[in-house]
Backbone:
């Protein structure tokens, strides 16, 4: 009968939902084909070494965070997955991740002490480790060598004052039409561009005790400095030139210096192969500081295959796995021995990132996610509405009280 | 007796045919609506197992949230700006397209294309048009107006810019609705008006506008609902910025539910949005009914 057919359809569609969950599932996002190829290469090596550990690789091509969140909420989360450093405090405070300390103690070969200190404790929350920093990136200063030599500059800026003076010298209107063709520097009305300068000035966003420090004179001073570069017309922002992001401005040769992570290197290779650039550490303020970005590999509490998931995690973030993963330079290793083995200390570009690790602070703020959008709004207010910096940041500090994680 | 059993059979087959769509609608529409309403009274974070009941707590917090107040304001400005212009423009376009002019098929297609183009694509095109070195500033400068603003990062222009885009994309769609309405107007009315010496303009206002009133009613309600729910253009073009100058209610719902994990809070703001749409529709039905002439 027709009824039976309908019932059959329903039954079939329900069967489809019943996914196979008998082996450990490993999930990542996919940002490029090169990346996926290397991930698969690393996994093949793992299979050769540990043929007895069953697993399945299930990358999520789009809307990673949203999908993962739903999977966690419905108890279908993968057993091992990537977690962005900046979203990690929320996940750790929600108590959905498995503390990794017992595994770290058991697995002697893992050698957690090989990690750079800033990354070894990167995903620690209330004394427990919840994730392993799989790789990192850090803000450094890229500069256009051609523009520097045209301006007769043979050194690089090492202090805020020099950054200002260099930017001024490098800003020019070559065709004298009243419009500047080349800016010294490029910034963005974004909190994470101000953060390294704030750290250099002795400020922070939130203290270890959970007090909001964004309205302090040190933070305001750092923001003032960034704004002064823009106000005096020696730094530009991407929307002013119709550019999508800061790297675009640098690749179009419309600015001489830029703060960026290593993600700029492949972009420049593809979009501005003739651009000769150098990479140096960020100029320093009262002290040296920069911002480091990291991604954690985590195991959720709900996982039914924690042992296997750990074996996979341990291999991928072990000396061997990380060497394969970072060899080509698409990511930077969080292990000192791997950085040495891959020759990153001898490379004129990558060694700068390695030096920066010593004083880098992790981009991870212990607040609810909304802190970021509120801070972005404040920065946009300062840049686009010319709001008073001190007043805006003090208001922001009061506003952010609601979003601290206890 | 025979009659009764036939009626019964009719009922039976009626429900059989209805069963599948009803099942789909209940699972994917009615149940989620009811569920969202219930969720709005709980502090539900998808990742935390316990979901404490907070009563009206989410709603109280909503009206204390300056971003939400701004989102309501933006949504209302957006709707008030888009709906009248869009309705008039699409009626006007339909009126012209209904005349016997040369190249009518081409113009009809040209006006309808934005409606069938993905909103993501049109948004990305307009991001470029509105950028500082973009097409709009170029055109303005070439006609002698010196314009050097970045339309999407300027807090004053961002919302009107997105409004213009929406008017452009949806006018074609509503034009088709109006065209259908126009073709139902008997030509005898126009002939009689011509004999009485009415001008084109008078014909438009005295015959066309009142005769398409049911269609106007439909168009206004649909575009009201569409405007209140505007999301994709905001998401792609401005992310609610700068400084929340273009945050709309739907965008606020999305941010809170899927970025800040606060499903209860997000559901509460969705309920407020639904109430707002419901209220405007009721008001319209009461004061501007479709067949009041």
Residues:
């Amino acid at each position: 009968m027709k009824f039976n057919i309908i019932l059959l359809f329903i039954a079939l569609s329900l069967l489809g939902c019943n996914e196979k969950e008998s082996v450990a599932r490993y999930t990542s996002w996919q940002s490029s084909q090169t990346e996926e190829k290397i991930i698969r290469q690393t996994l093949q090596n793992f299979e050769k070494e540990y043929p007895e550990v069953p697993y399945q690789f299930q990358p999520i091509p789009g809307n990673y965070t949203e999908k993962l969140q739903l999977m966690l909420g419905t108890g279908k989360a993968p057993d091992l997955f990537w977690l962005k450093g900046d979203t990690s405090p929320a996940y750790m405070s929600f108590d959905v991740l498995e503390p990794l300390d017992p595994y770290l103690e058991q697995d002697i070969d893992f050698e957690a002490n090989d990690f750079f200190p800033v990354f070894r404790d990167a995903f620690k929350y209330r004394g427990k480790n919840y994730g392993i920093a799989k790789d990192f990136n850090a803000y450094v200063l890229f500069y256009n060598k051609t523009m520097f030599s045209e301006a007769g500059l043979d050194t690089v800026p090492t202090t805020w004052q020099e950054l200002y003076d260099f930017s001024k010298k490098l800003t020019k209107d070559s065709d004298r039409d009243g419009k500047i063709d080349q800016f010294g520097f490029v910034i963005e009305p974004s909190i994470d561009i101000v953060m390294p300068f704030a750290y250099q000035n002795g400020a922070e966003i939130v203290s270890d005790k959970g007090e909001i420090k964004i309205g302090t004179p040190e933070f305001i001073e750092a923001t003032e400095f960034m704004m002064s570069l823009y106000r005096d017309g020696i730094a530009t922002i991407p929307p002013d030139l119709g550019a999508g992001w800061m790297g675009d401005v640098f690749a179009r040769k419309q600015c001489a210096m830029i703060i960026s992570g290593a993600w700029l290197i492949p972009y420049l290779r593809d979009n501005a192969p003739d651009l000769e650039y150098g990479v140096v550490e960020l100029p320093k303020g009262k002290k040296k500081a920069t911002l480091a970005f990291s991604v954690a590999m985590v195991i959720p509490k709900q996982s039914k295959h924690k042992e296997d998931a750990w074996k996979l995690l341990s291999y991928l973030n072990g000396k061997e796995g990380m060497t394969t993963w970072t060899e080509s330079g698409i990511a930077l290793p969080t292990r000192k021995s791997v950085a040495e083995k891959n020759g990153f200390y001898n490379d004129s570009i990558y060694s700068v990132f390695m030096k920066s690790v010593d004083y880098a602070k992790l981009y991870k703020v212990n607040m609810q996610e909304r802190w970021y959008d509120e801070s972005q709004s404040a920065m946009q207010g300062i840049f686009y509405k010319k709001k008073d910096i001190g007043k805006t940041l003090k208001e922001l500090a009061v506003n952010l009280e609601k979003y601290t994680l206890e | 007796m025979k009659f009764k059993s036939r009626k019964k059979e009719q009922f039976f087959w009626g429900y059989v045919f209805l069963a599948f769509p009803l099942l789909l609608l209940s699972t994917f529409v009615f149940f989620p609506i009811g569920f969202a309403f219930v969720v709005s009274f709980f502090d539900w974070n998808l990742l935390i197992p316990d979901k404490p009941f907070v009563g009206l707590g989410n709603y109280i917090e909503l009206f204390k949230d300056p971003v939400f107040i701004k989102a309501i304001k933006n949504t209302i400005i957006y709707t008030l700006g888009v709906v009248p212009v869009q309705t008039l423009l699409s009626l006007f376009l339909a009126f012209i397209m209904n005349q016997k002019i040369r190249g009518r098929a081409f113009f009809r297609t040209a006006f309808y294309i934005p409606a069938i183009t993905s909103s993501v694509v049109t948004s990305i095109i307009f991001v470029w048009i509105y950028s500082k070195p973009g097409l709009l500033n170029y055109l303005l400068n070439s006609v002698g107006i010196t314009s050097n603003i970045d339309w999407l990062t300027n807090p004053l222009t961002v919302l009107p810019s997105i409004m213009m885009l929406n008017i452009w994309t949806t006018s074609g769609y509503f034009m088709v609705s109006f065209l259908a309405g126009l073709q139902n107007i008997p030509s005898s009315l126009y002939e009689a008006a011509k004999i009485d010496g009415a001008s084109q303009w008078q014909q438009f206002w005295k015959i066309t506008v009142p005769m398409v009133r049911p269609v106007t009613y439909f168009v206004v309600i649909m575009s009201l609902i569409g405007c209140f729910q505007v999301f994709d253009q905001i998401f792609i073009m401005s992310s609610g910025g700068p400084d929340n100058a273009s945050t709309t209610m739907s965008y606020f719902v999305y941010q809170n539910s899927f970025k800040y994990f606060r499903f209860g809070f997000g559901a509460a703001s969705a309920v407020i949005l639904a109430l707002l749409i419901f209220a405007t529709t009721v008001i319209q039905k009461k004061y501007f009914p479709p067949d009041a002439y």
Remarks:
- Confidence is low (pLDDT under 50) at residues 14-18 of chain A.
- Chain A touches chain B through 32 residues (CB under 8 Å).
- Residues 33-49 of chain A form the longest helix (17 residues).
- The CA atoms of residues 2 and 139 of chain A lie 65 Å apart.
